[in-house]
Write a structure and sequence with these properties.
Elements (H helix, E strand, L loop, with lengths): L2 H12 L8 E12 L11 E15 L4 E6 L7 E4 L13 H14 L6 E7 L9 H17 L5 H11 L10 H8 L4 E6 L4 E6 L4 E7 L9 H21 L6 H25 L3 H17 L6 H12 L4 E5 L6 E7 L3 H13 L8 H4 E4 L6 E3 L7
Parallel strand pairs: 3-5
Antiparallel strand pairs: 1-2, 1-12, 2-5, 3-4, 6-7, 8-10, 8-11, 9-10
Helix pairs in contact: 2-3, 2-4, 3-5, 4-5, 6-7, 7-8, 9-10
This protein binds 2-acetamido-2-deoxy-1-O-phosphono-alpha-D-galactopyranose.
The site of 2-acetamido-2-deoxy-1-O-phosphono-alpha-D-galactopyranose (NG1) has 17 residues, from helix 5.
Length: 381
């Protein structure tokens, strides 16, 4: 929705605001190109932000209350008072990402006032594209803008990375960092400890495609348990390795993924800088194999999509995000994108009765800028 329409939807939900205009904040989703399930081990990752985004039209309130209305009627309105200990809504409630943002900021700044906020998104949910972190970041920027407070970029990434744990996921810091710090036209290597973003231009004739597996990776459900189990195993790995003992069984496979994936991030960054599409593609393939066999976070639907993309001429493909469902990312030369997308439509979506929705499930991902508060009346992209 363009900003002007968002403003009108805001007025329908909350009445005409006065005296100041409604502002709009945009926070993009992200696709992680490579470096999966290693951010919480402190190893570098290599994502980019995409055009699809969460947008929030907001207006400051004079009290601490925050009232949220979602343009998508599947998500019921939500309200809470902004303070340093906000009781959560039931697990899985979308409003918890807004609560997470508000609580993290309230712990940093006393006496914040709340906002009325109309939320809209064209990011698919539970698709591995970080719609939840985009909502959290957008909400944080809205509250900061409404209160006239600022936090330095890297500090905000860390604050919100920790803040998202409010929802019960022991996540790494990749998503909040790229959503806030992405540069248009680039992917970014994110280093942790200390946090740092290093952009690399995505070559003009490379095309990334995202395709959804038709399986929701609900971070509020079983996928959360599986995700948190992986983060615990990583802590265990470090303890065993530090103690000098030998790893065996499941832990040794998890370890192999972490180590090889870390190496692939460096190699992929170099391949992108050298515009070496074939090498980048091979690294995507190797990453998928490692996530499937050693880290065990894939699913048959993701494996099938990856296989079909390769058969259709992709340079490489892999699951992206936490896995357990969600999406794959595919790399190809720009001119091959239409035929690869058509092949996925015919061979993956049509047999599953989803031919009519292919345009929603498969899209090209353009490297986009990070989150921003837009000036009133602006209508980006
Ligand atoms: P998604 O794909 O949004 O569930 C999660 C974590 C990332 C990272 C990836 C796996 C959160 C908010 N996001 O992403 O930090 O660990 O899994 O690489 O926890």
């Amino acid at each position: 929705m363009a900003s002007t329409h968002l403003g009108a939807a805001f007025a329908r939900a909350f009445g005409a605001p006065s005296p100041s205009p409604v502002h709009v904040v945009r926070a993009p989703g992200r696709v992680n190109l490579i470096g999966e399930h290693i951010d919480y081990c402190g190893l570098p990752v290599f994502p980019m932000a995409i055009r699809r985004s969460v947008r929030i039209a907001f207006h400051p309130r004079s009290d601490r209350e925050t009232h949220l209305v979602n343009h998508d009627p599947r998500f019921a309105p939500s309200a809470f008072a902004v303070n340093e200990s906000i009781p959560p809504a039931p697990a899985g409630d979308w409003g918890n990402y807004a609560r997470a943002a508000a609580q993290a900021l309230a712990q940093r700044f006393p006496d914040l006032r709340g906002v009325n906020a109309l939320v809209d998104s064209d990011l698919p949910i539970a698709a591995g594209l970080s719609s939840s972190s985009a909502l959290l970041v957008a909400m944080a920027l809205a509250i900061m803008h409404a209160n006239g407070v600022t936090v330095a970029s890297l500090e905000l990434m860390e604050l919100l990375g920790r803040g998202e744990r409010y929802v019960g996921t022991a996540g790494g810091g990749m998503d909040q960092a790229i959503i806030l710090g992405a540069r248009a036209g680039c992917a970014s290597r994110i280093d942790f400890h200390p946090l740092r973003l290093t952009p690399t231009a995505v070559p003009a004739d490379w095309q990334f495609i995202v395709a959804w597996s038709l399986v929701h990776a609900e971070k509020s459900g079983a996928a959360r348990q599986a995700y948190n189990e992986r983060t615990r195993q990583c802590d265990e790995l470090l303890e065993v390795a530090e103690g000098g003992a030998t790893l065996s069984g499941v832990l040794s496979r998890r370890f192999r993924h972490v180590v090889t994936e870390g190496t692939r991030v460096r190699q992929a960054e170099a391949a992108m800088a050298a515009q070496d599409l074939a090498t980048f593609g091979q690294l995507l393939d190797a990453s998928h194999q490692s996530l499937r066999d050693d880290y065990e976070v894939s699913r048959p639907e993701l494996d099938r999509l990856v296989e079909l993309a390769r058969e259709a001429g992709a340079a490489g493909a892999r699951l992206t995000g936490a896995g357990f469902g969600g999406s794959i990312v595919v790399l190809c030369r720009a001119e091959h994108a239409p035929e690869i997308m058509a092949a996925l439509g015919e061979r993956f979506y049509a047999p599953r009765g989803a031919a009519g929705d292919v345009a929603r499930h498969v899209f090209t991902a353009e490297p986009s800028a990070g989150a921003e508060v837009l000036t009133p009346g602006a209508s980006p992209e």
